[in-house]
Amino acid sequence: DGLTDAQKEYLKDSNLRNVLHAGASDAEATVKWANAMQAYTETLAADGTPYVPVNFASDPRSTAGSGGYNAEGADISRWPSNLGLAATFNPEHTKNFGEMSSAEYRALGLTTALSPQIDLATEPRWLRVGGTFGEDADQNTELAAAYVDGYQGSEGTDEWGPESVNAMIKHWSGDGPGEGGREGHTDAGKYGVYPGDNIAAQQQAFLGSLDSAAVMTAYSIALDANGEPKFTDRMGTAYDQDRMDQLRKDAGYEGVVVTDWGVMSGADDEGEMFGMAWGAEALTPAERYLKVLGTGHDMFGGVNDATHILEAADLWQQKFEAGELEEDALTRFQESGARILTMFFNPGLYENPFLDLEQSKATLASDDKVEAGYAAQLDSVVMLKNDGETISASDAAAWKDKTVYIPRNFNTGFASAFGPGEYTEAPSIDVETAEKYFGKVVTDEAVTDAEGVVTSYTAPDLTDVDLVLVGMDSPDNGGNFSNIGHDLENDTWYPLSLQYRPYTADGENVRKVSLSGDILADGTKQNRSYFGNTSKIANESDLDAFVRAQDAIAASGKDIPVITVLKAINPVVPAEFEAASDAIVVGFGTSDEALIEVALGLYEPQGRLPIQFPIDMNTVEAQLEDVSKDMTPYTDADGNVYDYGFGLNYAGPITD
Question: CA–CA separation, 414 vs 482, rounded Å?
């Protein structure tokens, strides 16, 4: 419905032109809004005020199994997550995704993608593993390049054109090795640790994709194996001169460098919702901008108000005039201005920033894109177990008169910066989708209290059931903004876990003294060890559902096959459910439809694990946060080892 007063204010008064579009992929609403914003910026041009159109940006919005932007609806093609693209072991899918997704982005007016996320997934408990290309540095490098080429090319070429989108690789120099898997969005995870001195592998894919238009930097403070700063500054990447010199000076990167959101504000700053200026909290806002400009940054994520940037310009000029800096403020700002404007010139925003609604509708979710996305989803599904040919080639007609049981489960949620945790409850696989394939779908009867919280489930009689499909999500440790790993109420630390049942971290591999920790007022270092404490998993009910299914099968007196359908964003310890599963299929950001088709034998599985699945939490504790493939993988009842690269087809382990 047009522009808000706040939008007009940041466009007019703060001269903002890089706008994050965090809404749904609704063609009509987006096209009209984007055109209105572009038209408004034209009116702002005047003597002394140049015309600059709007460069719309977006986080990833195309993942089929994501609860993110536009999770509902059919206005954009749907693909596996980055981890799912890696699971195909076919870079053509990633290149196709880049080419087709960028065309859809342009149809929505988006000219910058805040992606790909190419942090190396060396810490299996990290919350953002699902957004990565896995833990193999060479595969990560290959897919990052394919993604960037696909997005920045146009109409099948490697040239900038009407379907090109600026790619922003993130998060330099790798935000994956948070101690214990804790996440850098919050104080609990603000330290990245390098006990294996393996930062080169974390940086490899970035250095292989330096033709990307932009780079976003990481939140975390880097510490070495002794818990000391790995570089000179005990600060997050944006403030860390040495890490930024590696990118700007050593690698010669000339594109735009952007801070992640919230990096310019401190946790105690008045009126700020987020504060991730890790290590720079004591600086004034203007001093932070001065420092970050000095490390070679050009843009500030999430900043709508130019006040502190202009204050930093004054500080810069004062330091220049005092002989402390080699170039004046205007020259420094012009350097960034030239880089930033290149992101407007690349996709042709000055030639034509406007959209045609009918053309956009024809581009979005066109048949070729939807089919290619679904093909990638199917190819990404990994079959880990197939006992006695539980899954074999079949056709859809064979299942039309069959009955399937899908148990229900719930997730208690986690409180976060956005409010209390959200309780959710539903069948573990979408019933409406399952009904496309089966004659009948049955599920549990739930008893709830006055708040809608389930107090008990009762499984149906399975006498007439032909198949049990148990959907399970990865063990849910919390969200990016949940400060997971730190119980703030008790000021105690607890472990993140890859198993559903409570895990108490009292093994010999658990650090009794953490590598990370704040420097306290008395000069000592805080101990963030979680030794002896127990995990907090929001979806333990997933395993309860699996057990309930086993009990219901036993009560029926029948031998009903059980296929576990794992929707994974992290590695999982399979010991809790593998032995009682006749087959296991895994999807990484795929739709329930693709998972069902593979589970029923309607499509032969092609996917392979892009990450190791560990034998237990002991091996998780023994591995080093910055080192790939250093866990003992799980071995199942059939003798198959769930290592990086493992997957089954109908004939057995995939060897190519």
Answer: 6
